[in-house]
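Sample pair:
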Amino acid sequence: MSGPSAGSGPSAAPRPPTASVRLRRAARDTREPVRMLTLHGLAGSASVWRAYEQRASSHVELWEAVLPWSADGDPDWSLRDDPADHVEHALDSVPGGVDVIVVHSFTAGPALEALARRGAGRGPRAAVVVAPFHRRTPGEFTWDDATYYLSGFHRILEEGLRISAGDRLAPQLRAAMALRVRDRIGPYGWQQFFGAYLRSPFLNVGALRLPVLVVAGTKDFAAPPDDARALAAALPDGRFRLFDGCGHFAMAEQPDRFAHAVHGLLHEVFAGTSPHLSDHPSDHPSEQLSDRLSEHLSAHPYAPYAPELT
């Protein structure tokens, strides 16, 4: 009996990265524009950033990545590809280089891995990470975590459909669509997701010297807010923002607060070279970015977070 043909199985070498980028919006203010690249999560799309696009500061030149694990991507990426390779390819594809990377959910782990291995001087000057999956130590994972994310994976996908479609989809149809998306992702896609999560304690945080804003929502049942808190505390130049009453999609659920937080980071990092960044698009006193990580973060260690998937 003949076996599988050479190069056809999961053990074959990874394919060349297939991530692509496209310019979504040119900077309206061309004085020292800041090139920003947004990256969607697993089974997501670039449309998740549309609310932020409408609120982004005029100096932002907005690029978006289309990654292989998008909603309409090729599921075979999960058989052997390293997702960090695709992130690196997207970073290298933006003409002139990326100043700020903004990344969501599953893609946050591979993106941080890519930035860490690029080293100083070869990557963006700042990053925004929304709803990351991150644990401080391997011992924080249990079999209950695997069960939770395996049996409830479709619920996370259903939440994404709820946010993107709103009331246009009946709950029964939305649930059925989520199952179809789950089946299209397949076991290998899920393994890529959970594998990236399991690798998170080994992230070389010391190599991430850039300012990183980590955003979480108190009602996120997919990525525990304490994951984001732990990541921000571990980063050399991290800062943490927790949005009350917000779920897994802060940029879509609370776009004004999100845009304000991002603008604060841009002002902090780029104001020296772009003085016009002092013009703030909104005024939300609860989202001031002047305060740094302090004893508050270290006083809130990671606690298991396992809400009911209902």
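The beta strands are 20-25, 34-39, 60-66, 100-104, 126-130, 212-217, 238-243.
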